[in-house]
Amino acid sequence: MLHLAPDLVHMERARDWTNPFSPNEREVGPLLAQASTRHFAPDGTMGLPSSASAELGRQILERRVDSIAKQVRTFLAHIDRRDVRQPSGAEPL
Q1: How many structural domains comprise the chain?
Q2: How far apart are CA 3 and CA 85, in angstroms?
Q3: Residue 74 has pLDDT above 90, yes or no
Q4: pTM over 0.90
Q5: Cα angle vertex 83, ends 78, 85, to 5°?
Q6: Does 74 map to a domain?
Q7: Which domain holds residue 10?
Protein backbone atom coordinates (compact mmCIF):
# COMPACT_ATOMS: atom_id res chain seq x y z
CA MET A 1 0.00 0.00 0.00
CA LEU A 2 2.87 2.38 0.65
CA HIS A 3 3.81 1.98 -3.00
CA LEU A 4 0.33 2.04 -4.56
CA ALA A 5 -1.62 4.35 -2.27
CA PRO A 6 0.63 5.95 0.34
CA ASP A 7 -2.08 8.45 1.30
CA LEU A 8 -4.16 5.56 2.68
CA VAL A 9 -1.39 4.29 4.97
CA HIS A 10 -1.03 5.55 8.54
CA MET A 11 2.40 4.38 9.62
CA GLU A 12 1.97 6.14 12.94
CA ARG A 13 -0.64 3.48 13.76
CA ALA A 14 1.61 0.57 12.82
CA ARG A 15 2.59 -1.71 15.67
CA ASP A 16 5.17 -4.45 15.35
CA TRP A 17 3.79 -7.80 16.45
CA THR A 18 5.49 -9.87 19.12
CA ASN A 19 4.65 -13.52 19.58
CA PRO A 20 3.08 -13.56 23.07
CA PHE A 21 4.16 -17.14 23.74
CA SER A 22 7.72 -16.91 22.46
CA PRO A 23 8.86 -13.31 21.88
CA ASN A 24 11.88 -14.27 19.76
CA GLU A 25 9.85 -16.55 17.46
CA ARG A 26 8.21 -15.00 14.37
CA GLU A 27 6.79 -18.20 12.84
CA VAL A 28 3.01 -18.16 13.15
CA GLY A 29 2.13 -21.55 11.64
CA PRO A 30 2.18 -23.43 14.95
CA LEU A 31 0.13 -20.68 16.60
CA LEU A 32 -2.51 -20.77 13.89
CA ALA A 33 -2.77 -24.53 14.31
CA GLN A 34 -3.58 -24.06 18.01
CA ALA A 35 -5.82 -20.99 18.07
CA SER A 36 -7.41 -18.29 15.97
CA THR A 37 -5.52 -15.11 15.20
CA ARG A 38 -7.67 -13.23 17.73
CA HIS A 39 -6.18 -15.36 20.49
CA PHE A 40 -2.61 -14.16 20.00
CA ALA A 41 -3.05 -11.02 17.87
CA PRO A 42 -6.21 -9.28 19.10
CA ASP A 43 -5.96 -6.44 16.58
CA GLY A 44 -5.61 -8.97 13.74
CA THR A 45 -2.14 -7.91 12.68
CA MET A 46 1.14 -9.78 12.64
CA GLY A 47 4.59 -8.95 11.33
CA LEU A 48 6.86 -5.94 11.36
CA PRO A 49 5.07 -3.04 9.70
CA SER A 50 7.81 -0.69 10.89
CA SER A 51 10.08 -2.28 8.28
CA ALA A 52 7.68 -1.44 5.43
CA SER A 53 8.59 1.06 2.73
CA ALA A 54 7.23 2.16 -0.62
CA GLU A 55 10.37 0.81 -2.31
CA LEU A 56 10.00 -2.61 -0.70
CA GLY A 57 6.33 -2.65 -1.75
CA ARG A 58 7.33 -1.76 -5.31
CA GLN A 59 9.85 -4.61 -5.39
CA ILE A 60 7.35 -7.15 -4.02
CA LEU A 61 4.64 -6.04 -6.45
CA GLU A 62 7.06 -6.18 -9.38
CA ARG A 63 8.11 -9.73 -8.48
CA ARG A 64 4.48 -10.86 -8.14
CA VAL A 65 3.51 -9.32 -11.49
CA ASP A 66 6.53 -10.95 -13.14
CA SER A 67 5.62 -14.31 -11.59
CA ILE A 68 2.00 -14.12 -12.72
CA ALA A 69 3.04 -13.05 -16.22
CA LYS A 70 5.42 -16.01 -16.40
CA GLN A 71 2.64 -18.38 -15.32
CA VAL A 72 0.30 -16.96 -17.95
CA ARG A 73 2.98 -17.28 -20.67
CA THR A 74 3.65 -20.88 -19.62
CA PHE A 75 -0.06 -21.67 -19.70
CA LEU A 76 -0.49 -20.10 -23.12
CA ALA A 77 2.54 -21.97 -24.46
CA HIS A 78 0.86 -25.26 -23.55
CA ILE A 79 -2.47 -24.55 -25.19
CA ASP A 80 -3.01 -26.57 -28.31
CA ARG A 81 -3.56 -23.61 -30.59
CA ARG A 82 -5.39 -25.77 -33.14
CA ASP A 83 -8.23 -26.15 -30.62
CA VAL A 84 -8.46 -22.48 -29.76
CA ARG A 85 -11.11 -20.69 -31.75
CA GLN A 86 -10.32 -17.08 -32.54
CA PRO A 87 -13.09 -14.52 -32.95
CA SER A 88 -13.32 -13.39 -36.57
CA GLY A 89 -10.75 -10.70 -37.26
CA ALA A 90 -8.79 -11.40 -34.06
CA GLU A 91 -5.06 -11.96 -34.11
CA PRO A 92 -3.98 -15.54 -33.26
CA LEU A 93 -2.52 -16.12 -29.78
Answers
A1: 1
A2: 40
A3: no
A4: no
A5: 115
A6: yes
A7: 6-82
